Amino acid sequence: MTEPTNGERARRAVRALDTFRTADDPAQLGAGDVLAELLASLRHYADRSGIDFGKVLAASNRAYNEQRGSEGHPYRVGHEVQIRDGVALSPSLTTLPTRGVVAALYPGGLSEQAYAVRFPGEVNAMPFLGSEIEPAPPFPPVQTSRGAVRCLTDAEDALIRAAARIQVHRLGGTRQDRADIRDRRVLAAALGEICGLTPEQMLGQVDLRVTAKVREDLADNSAPAVAAPQLAGRDYPQRPGGLRAVVPGAAEPAASNHPEREARRSSPRATRARWR
Fold first, then answer.
1. Where are the alpha helices (DSSP H) in the chain?
2. What is the CA radius of gyration of the chain?
3. 203 CB-contact burial (10 Å; exposed 0-12 / middle 13-18 / buried 19+)
4. Largest CB tally within 10 Å, which of 150, 199, 230, 261?
5. φ and ψ at 216, to 5 degrees?
6. Which of 202, 101, 103, 123 is closest to 159 using CA atoms?
7. pTM summary value
8. Could you give the CA distance from residue 162 to residue 147 in angstroms, rounded to a whole number?
9. Which pLDDT belongs to residue 108?
């Protein structure tokens, strides 16, 4: 007998829920409420049949984890992917880098597997179906003054740190490190090339995160002192609080002067893919 797929298992559950809903006629209940009622009824059945419901539940959890682990996902968390040619994006997403990193897998459902993909410079991950992305070519190592970077996230982090150090020195009126200036130029060019952006666009893409890093560095006692008049009137966003490999809207950076970046968080394209 052929082992059923997890999609087939989910469809069996739909039939069971529909049967239970019809029998019990909870017309006003949502799917989650019907499932809760069904589980409670199964527990009553177990009580009357001398079945240890706790053991059954533990066994079902083990089976579920094994079944999920055996799914043939083409992408895992940390995989570098790129948007396939010809994929239709809403206007607010057309300026995205074409290359990103899988941050999370959405729970498998009855439709195509979806992935949360985070792109350089973005705080939130964005939903894409498996058919909308493809494996990215190997990342070409980039040599910097602080060593070689060999993956997308390391290159992004190195660019943000170099650009932030330059900005901190500029605000403090101190001499900028030539190595940082070179690293910023080299990393922006390399990242821009593999992400389908110009170096200038790449620097604009990471601008929000650079500003947040500047704020962090200025709060650090080890950062160069910055004269108060130079900081007066500057609007630094709050530190995002770390990247979160979750669905869009999970992390909310401060408002900025980048309305197109803000629009991405509530774009029709993102909403469509999120709830598919």
1. 6-24, 31-49, 53-69, 152-172, 178-195, 199-205, 207-219, 228-231, 259-264, 268-275
2. 25
3. buried
4. 261
5. -60, -45
6. 202
7. 0.60
8. 13
9. 65
